[in-house]
Amino acid sequence: MKKKIYEGKAKVLYQGKEPNTIIQYFKDDATAFNNKKKATIPGKGVLNNFISELIMTRLNDINIPNHFIKRLNMREQLVHKLEIIPIEVVIRNIATGSLVKRLGIEEGKILSRPIIEFYLKNDELNDPIISEEHIIVFDWASHEELESIISISQRINDFLTGYFYSQKIRLVDFKLEFGRFWENQEMTIMVADEISPDNCRLWDLQTNEKLDKDRFRQDLGNVDRAYKEVAYRLGVLSEKEFKKVLKNDI
Ligand code: TMP
């Protein structure tokens, strides 16, 4: 029996066999608006496991440190145990979502340069937006760590924008989480969590069709189809596995 460490909205974390490792189990559950809206999207966990594996592996290829070690099976991956920094980093290329709501910016406007925002990871407070000052003064991360988080986020945005573009997908915005990895008394800032259509906005390049969790948030229907489309375009599932997911056979 694996020891459960934590159950979140979309994943369960178990203790890994090796020291300082964690098993991330990807559920089919989806939530939005801080848990007010809930549903199960058949196959979502499998797809996010594969999509996140691919992206984290590519980030590793270009030397962007992240917690991913290896995929274990259809729904689980082994990751490094990190000391999680309690902020969510959002990188935006195109105005939509809360940016449009909060500031009245025109929906779909291409930003003159990417914007980085920070939110406090705190469900009780509804993940409020915060500034760099708050992060430093309240010791959520040091100045040096924050510099590193910003530079990694910019590199990921540049890389993923091109990566998705090559699959005819626009990377509109996305959310990252970070943690501290300790080894031999040395600390490295690493990307944590997952990178998948759950925390990215992905629009079809030609039609602007939404291929991400906004289909669930906005009741647009065909949520599972959109996730499958992303997985298929990225080539993360073999034909055989893709068919199994289509039949909800996992
Ligand atoms: P927002 O426009 O609602 O602030 O979302 C910005 C990006 O962050 C979008 O790609 C969705 C992602 N996101 C999460 O991953 N988790 C969340 O809890 C929220 C609110 C947004």
Overall description:
- By secondary structure, the protein is an alpha+beta fold.
- It folds into two domains: 4-81 and 231-249, Phosphorylase Kinase, domain 1 (2-Layer Sandwich); 83-204, D-amino Acid Aminotransferase, Chain A, domain 1.
- The chain is built from seven helices and 15 strands.
- Strand 2 and strand 3 form a beta hairpin.
- Helix 1 (44-61) packs parallel to helix 6 (223-234).
- The longest helix has 23 residues, at 143-165.
- The mean pLDDT is 96.
- The structure holds thymidine-5'-phosphate (TMP).
- Thymidine-5'-phosphate binds next to helix 2, strand 12 and strand 15.
Amino- and carboxy-terminal Cα gap: 21 Å
| Biggest sheet architecture | 5 strands, antiparallel
Shape: globular
Tell me, rounded to a whole number, the average pLDDT: 96
Beta-sheet strand percentage? 25-35%
Structural class: alpha+beta
Tally of individual domains: 2
Bound molecules: thymidine-5'-phosphate
For this structure, what is the CATH class of the largest domain? Answer: Alpha Beta
Unreliable stretches:
none
Can you name the CATH architecture of the largest domain?
2-Layer Sandwich
Number of strands: 15
Number of helices: 7
Which helices and strands, and how do they pair?
Elements: E1 4-7, E2 11-15, E3 21-26, E4 29-32, E5 37-40, H1 44-61, E6 68-71, E7 76-80, E8 83-84, E9 87-94, H2 97-103, E10 110-120, E11 129-130, H3 132-137, H4 143-165, E12 169-176, E13 178-183, E14 186-191, E15 200-204, H5 214-217, H6 223-234, H7 239-246
Antiparallel strand pairs: 1-2, 2-3, 3-7, 4-5, 6-7, 8-13, 9-10, 9-12, 10-11, 12-15, 13-14
Thymidine-5'-phosphate binds next to helix 2, strand 12 and strand 15.
